[in-house]
From TrEMBL:
It comes from Borborobacter arsenicus. This is GntR family transcriptional regulator. The lineage of its organism: Bacteria, Pseudomonadati, Pseudomonadota, Alphaproteobacteria, Hyphomicrobiales. The keyword Transit peptide does not apply. GO terms for molecular function: DNA binding; DNA-binding transcription factor activity. SUPFAM superfamilies: Chorismate lyase-like, Winged helix' DNA-binding domain. CDD domains: WHTH_GntR.
């Protein structure tokens, strides 16, 4: 481990800017992990040690550590202390299964959390009207979330659905697809368009990477069995965290020329 005292020092004295002390300590630890000053497997000093070095109370240390454990950045092992969690490998995501973010991450044993960026009912944009087949008198439900796995923000997802499908966006808990499933509206087919892009200032801040970093922008239009479009989602995935994998088969002669669109 690098010089730990530099990580924790000065938290109390820099606290004049108003943010609660435990959040400042949490940020200092998270920054140290991101900058590689603390690496996966490193043990954190004891609660008492951190409290002394950061000049904060042990309650403050406990609160900061608990949040980082909840986020999956730290792990606590009974009797032996608190450690930096193992590094997340790049996520390999199949392009042939219609799964939700929650399911994808749960399959990998990762803890998922979302930060809400927007949710509500709005008049539809011309694009939403076209894709979702809405008239100008109908309304659209929008939900935008920052999707976080094991404490690392992985994607920003901005979904639009007809308000008749999702009349109460506040009812969406941790999973949109779980909510849709309850009303028999879980999509069974989707078309995805993936393009490379560079992150602008706002999105790079949310994804905690440098502005201009590579991203994969994914547009998913998903359908019910009836052929009705149910979801129009634009997602921005961190380019450094995702590999999308597609299985390709030699098509039989009667399938040649078939279009997925
Ligand atoms: C994926 C898709 C989105 C979809 C989401 C649902 O990430 N790219 O289009 O809306 O899954 O995930 P959840 O059910 O976890 O909200």
């Amino acid at each position: 481990m690098a010089d730990a005292s530099s990580i924790f020092a000065g938290i109390a004295t820099s606290a004049q800017n108003g943010a609660p002390l435990y959040l400042q300590l949490k940020k200092a630890i998270a920054d140290a992990v991101r900058r590689g000053l603390l690496v996966p497997g490193d043990a954190l000093p004891s609660e008492r040690d951190i409290a002394t070095r950061a000049e904060v109370s042990r309650v403050t240390v406990r609160k900061a550590v608990q949040e980082l454990v909840r986020d999956g950045m730290l792990v606590q092992r009974h009797g032996s202390g608190t450690f930096v969690a193992p590094r997340m490998d790049r996520v390999e995501q199949s392009l042939s299964r219609l799964t939700s973010f929650t399911e994808d991450m749960a399959r990998r044993g990762m803890k998922v959390r979302s930060a809400w960026l927007e949710r509500g009912i709005y008049p539809p944009s011309p694009e939403e009207m076209m894709v979702l087949g809405l008239s100008s008198k109908e309304l659209v439900a929008r939900i935008s979330r920052l999707r976080i796995a094991n404490g690392t923000p992985l994607a920003i997802e901005r979904a639009s659905l007809s308000a008749s499908t999702l009349p109460d966006p506040d009812a969406v808990g941790s999973s949109l697809y779980a909510t849709l499933e309850k009303t028999g509206n879980r999509p069974v087919r989707a078309v995805q368009r993936i393009s490379a892009a560079n992150l602008g200032d706002a999105d790079s801040k949310l994804l905690e990477v440098a502005p201009g970093s590579a991203s994969l922008n994914i547009e998913r239009i998903s359908y019910l069995l009836s052929g009705k479009v149910i979801e129009f989602t634009r997602s921005v995935y961190r380019g450094d965290a995702y590999d999308f994998v597609a299985e390709l088969r030699l098509s039989s002669p009667d399938e040649s020329g078939e279009s997925i669109l």
